[in-house]
Structures are given as structure tokens and as C-alpha cells.
Amino acid sequence: MFSLYGISGPIFQGTLETLSRLPPVSPGRPVMAARRIGDQIERNPEKVAAEATPPFPGKQAVDAYRAMLPENLERGPLYHANQIMQPEVISVSADDDVAHAWRMLVEHRIHQAPVLDAGQHLVGIVSERNLLTTLNVDQGQVRDVLGKRVSDVMTTPVVAATPLTDIRRIARVMLERNVDGVPIVSDSGALLGFVSRSDILNAVVTDPPLSMWR
After folding, report:
1. Contact 151, 94 (CB under 8 A)
2. Which stretches of the chain drop beneath a pLDDT of 50?
3. Quick one: DSSP state of residue 83?
4. Residue-range domains of the chain with CATH
């Protein structure tokens, strides 16, 4: 289940299919296909496949690999956002100045943060890209700061999801909406966690039980 949160509060709640029919929150520029330059030399497909396919490892090598695996690797598959989300969320206030928001991102080594209003309600999300429209960074130092607040540059409304939302659906929202993360909220709208692209990639790489298809 997904929601859209804006300055006036929740403005949408529904399924991924319904969300897909709404205008994009953060439209991105289309990706241009690469052009062919010069003549291409076509190699024998069978030869290329044979060169790219490594020989199947012997039983001894497989047994040695299994012996190196941690004993606690076997566990249930990952399906939902609450299984991979970051529960300790770094957020900023809509009233914060942009320089403070930038320092928060740098200090915690993150690229975006949910934005909360005075009542601790989700109203948007702010990224490095948003902040760099109002300040310059020279050798790690902030300079040439415009007199702007986070509310002036944040992306709003913001797509949020519930803890039991399917991970694959969250990944699809990231692609379709061109966002780098999705806040996870309770039924009452309280911020519970955050799922970023890195969280999903880490789950794919380090958690073999991740269920990609059901």
C-alpha cells in the first residue's frame, strides 16, 4: 500500500496500480540511447558464449565454498519493506535552513532525508540535488547560501509505503517515479523507517533468501 504526503497532509492512499496513474512526483529527464559509432565487428555468438561461460566447478570446490558460508544463512525469504528498511531515520524539519539540512546529510553520509512539519508529519523529501540549487560547496565548506528553507526546495508530495509493502513494488515505484528512496509510515502516518536503493541492492547482494518472484 502506497501513500502520497504533501504539505497539507495525506492526499492519496491506494495500490501501486492506482499510484501509477497519478502524475510523477519527481519527473526525470529521459535517458538517451547510445549511438553506434563506427563499424562493429560481429563475433561468432557460439564462440562468445563459450568464452563467457566459466567451467562448472567440481564437487570439491563446491564443498569448500559451502564450508565457508555462515551457519545462520538459512532463514525465511525477504518480502516486505520492514525486513530491509532502516529503522533509525535521519529527518529534517521543513523550517530548517538549507545549510543545516546539507550538514545533516553530510554528517550522516546520506543522500536524502524525509522532511517533517512542526507536528512531526511527513510532508516531503529533500536530497543533495535539491539543496545544491541554493548553495555552493567548496572543499567541503558551504558558501554562497541563499536565504531558503527546506520547505522551499524539497520534493513534495512524497511517495510513502506501509511496512508490509512488497519490496518489488517499492523498487518499481523508485524506477517509475525516479526517486532514490521511499519513507515507510504507519497507518496513522508516523514515520517508521526508510528504504533506499542501497537497501534493496544490499538485500539482493547479501541476502540470498530474498524472494524476487512469488
Report:
1. yes
2. 26-37, 40-42, 45, 48-50, 73-74, 213-214
3. G
4. 2-20+76-206 (3.10.580.10)
